[in-house]
Write a structure and sequence with these properties.
alpha+beta, 3-stranded antiparallel sheet, 1 helix
Length: 54
């Protein structure tokens, strides 16, 4: 149904972002400092529509 599945674990000092695709069900995880700008930068790399349902 979707091309990318993205999960987010947000803590005060860092966040973990996990991504899976239809073709590759092995999640890729990055750990970076908690920052809305960092999250926006990461999400901006995906050009297709994003579903933000929780």
């Amino acid at each position: 149904m979707f091309d990318h599945y993205i999960g987010l674990d947000w803590a005060q000092s860092n966040m973990a972002i996990a991504r899976m695709t239809k073709e590759n069900i092995q999640a890729k995880v990055i750990n970076v400092a908690s920052s809305l700008k960092e999250l926006q930068l990461y999400l901006s790399r995906f050009t297709r529509p994003k579903n933000t349902d929780l």
